[in-house]
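Render TetR/AcrR family transcriptional regulator in 3D.
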Amino acid sequence: MKNHMEKNLDLRVTKTYQSLFRAFAALLSEKKLEDITVNELCELAMIRRATFYKHFSDKFDFFTFFLKELQHSSMMRAAQTADPNDPCTFYISAIRSAFDFMEENACHLARALESGGILNLLMVLDQDELTSSLEHHLTERKKAGQPLPASPEILAQLFSGALFQVSRWWYTHRDVVDKEEVIAELSSLVRSFCSLCSHDS
């Protein structure tokens, strides 16, 4: 993927991304990812092909960026509810973020599923991003003297792996499994884990 993740984007680039996002969402609601062409995406977004390829290698590169930006927005909203004085709320926020993301973007994910294995690839990429964030958070907790039952690296892999596995399972059973019930159960597990760590101290 080309380097288009810079935080300080100028207004013109931001508008280009917004136009592409709106056009892509509209196209993805009507057809499979594999059936969408860069030409029709650029035409609907009213940008030149040269502009598109300045920022993205191909439509799959763009789709990765598209989903990661949606997930990032979802995680940012969820993280605002975390209590800095209660470490457990960070993990609970991450749980809700994952489920909210999948629910809010069910249509986009369904189209991705129709396109074969790309969804699994994207989930791995996003899991790596979550794992890195969790590892950083756990490392800071360890530096602050808070007890951990294992290394930050192992705990981050365990938590993110379990979260994405459960969230993927829920997505395929969402018609019969209530999202809030799953979040409540996972949150209870997190609370029990945090309590165990506290007692070990």
